[in-house]
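User: I'm writing a tutorial on reading structure tokens. Could you give me a worked example: one chain, its sequence, then its tokens, then a sentence or two explaining what the tokens reveal?
Assistant: Sure. Here is the example chain.
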Amino acid sequence: MARSNARLVRFAFFALLLVLSAYILSKGSSTSYSVSNVTGSNTTSTNEKAPAPGKKITANTDGTSSAQEQAKKAGQSGEKVKAAFVTLARNSDVWEILGSIKQIEDRFNRNFAYDWVFLNDEEFSEEFKKETSRLVSGNTHYGLIPQEQWSFPSWIDTEKAAKTRERMRQEQIIYGDSISYRHMCRYESGFFFRHPLMEQFDYYWRVEPGIKIYCDIDYDIFKYMQDNDYEYSYTISLPEYPATIPTLWETTKQFLKEYPGYLHKNNFMDWISDDGGVSYNGCHFWSNFEIGKLDFWRSEAYLAYFDYLDQAGGFFYERWGDAPIHSIAVALFMDKEKIHFFDDLGYYHVPFSNCPVNEKTRLEKKCACNPNDDVTFKNYFCNNRYYKLKGLKKPEGWEKYGD
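And here are its predicted structure tokens:
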């Protein structure tokens, strides 16, 4: 009987041990599963209400990547720069802009979570908001462009403007017959930085649909701009089509004659003129990529310059682009030491590429580009002139890829 009781006690003990083991294992399994389900900061479970487009769901702290958490803490401590990406797009651009966002996020922003501002001359669709907000690690903002900033100003002779478009169509000048392209150039020249959504930011990075970033950007590029006191940066520079801007330089010279005080003492005139300002050589920073300080565009000098050009009507009577206007303004009204060329990012916008020609840079930055496609030191482009005038040393190996 005693042996029987002992066996019962041992059986009960082992049964209890098995139950406890099963419970512990089940708790461990449950914990592992729940962690794996909160690693994505933009995902929701089926019983949660989906966020409104443009709003972000804040993940639990243990589900946020260390880089995102650092970016968040930096913003809370005042270290993070007030900066955002800005994109001018239409609803029909949504699928192409997703590719650009993915490039920026994978190569840079997933580690820093900067905001993104989208601007459109029409209301953004719910589809556009949903698709773009799900990819951006920061907050997304969607703005409507006022009609008066995307239409013919009252002082423009629309019949004269129509004749220009027809002539340019016959001459096969790129975008020569486009009205919307002219509105875009005027808006990018004089208004994007005035949009209420941009008022909260000090720096911006312009991003267009269909671009590529070839290299990892493992540092905060906005903080780099701020710490080095740079106000404008670029990746590609080239000459403008002369047929699109026949009177732009003459109008600029007239402005300088009337307002000589706006010309900066340490200007970069020699980069845009081969003869001391008599003529414009067409060199401009390709503005589909630009990182800049918004205070420059908000400055008295630039606002006066834009208003002068706007009244002259060259956006519509010719086909003045925002790239030469931005570039001329930067060269004339900004200290040239505040202009910066990024040679380590790798950038593509059809049809030109910037690919680091230095092999060490390409390897360290995990660049996915062919240096033979790089245009930086090709003679047609304007960067050889930039390096010479700034007294910069060209990167090792540039000779293999230049002219």
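What the tokens reveal: Residues 82-400 form a domain with the Spore Coat Polysaccharide Biosynthesis Protein SpsA; Chain A fold (CATH 3.90.550.10). The CA atoms of residues 110 and 400 lie 34 Å apart.
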